[in-house]
Structure formats: C-alpha cells, structure tokens
Amino acid sequence: METIKEIDGLLTFIVEAKAAAYMGGKPGETSCRPGSRDIPYRRDGWSYLDSYFGGTDFLGEEVVWRHEKPVWAMNYYGRVLDGSAIDGSRAADVLRTALPLMYAEGRFLGGFAHDVGPYRYVDESEGDYTSFTGVERILADGRAVYRLDYHGGLVIA
Predict the structure, then answer these.
(1) pTM to 2 decimals?
(2) Which residue range(s) make up the domain with 64?
(3) What is the mean pLDDT of residues 116-140?
(4) Phi/psi at 92 (nearest 5 deg)?
C-alpha cells in the first residue's frame, strides 16, 4: 500500500500534467466511453488522465496514478453562464492564457486572478491538493460569464 510519503512529487506532477495536457494543446485520444475526450500524460511511473464530456458546457475527471495505482483525482463541471458576453472558444482562450501563469507558480489551486483583454480570470479554493473544493470564474464587467466548480484530493487505498 502506498503512503503519502511514498508519493512525494505528486503536486509537482499534477501541475506538470495539467500544463502539458489540455493547457498544452495536447490532442485527445480515443476513449472507452462514447462521447468523451481523453487527454493522457505520463512520466517516470506517473500517469495522468483528463477525461471529459461536452464542449461549451462540460463535465470531467482528472486522475493520477503512481505505478498504476490511483492516488489522486479531481472532478469538475464548467459552463458558459452568458453566451452574449463570452462563448466557449473565448473562454478557452482566457483559460489558456491565465492557467499557465498559475502553473508557473508551481500550483493549480485558488487565490489567483489575471486579466485577459476585457475578461478577468479568478480562481478561489479551500484546502490543499490532498483535499480541496474550488471555483474558477471568468468575469466581464464584474459579473461571472463562465464558471467551473471542482473538487478532489487523495484517493489512496
């Protein structure tokens, strides 16, 4: 059985994988679940999979394995709240600009904001990578036009 001590480097790998997968523009692979997109990342005994359904409005899960044993997971649901202020493509552009800046700080959880053109990206969360809940928003003129809710943490048996 793995312990937290045996999975040193988990946070670093999560941030690396997030940056390399969807945010890195990595194309999805064929999924075993009809209609989903899977984006994997692997390095040195670590494996990551981001698997999601949808586009403008979407739901997904990220999982990290260490030597083929699941050790961490996160679920998320995101959606455009005001299609007249932002569409899925523009929301993705805001995310692809803001999130790499947070990842460059060696983290993926809240307390982060960044302006991208007329939009403001804001991420807020509670907890740390071992157990957390959070929300990311894109604001236009001070009101939320996009929202993603997420939660997750360790899944060690």
Answers:
(1) 0.90
(2) 5-154
(3) 97
(4) -60, -40
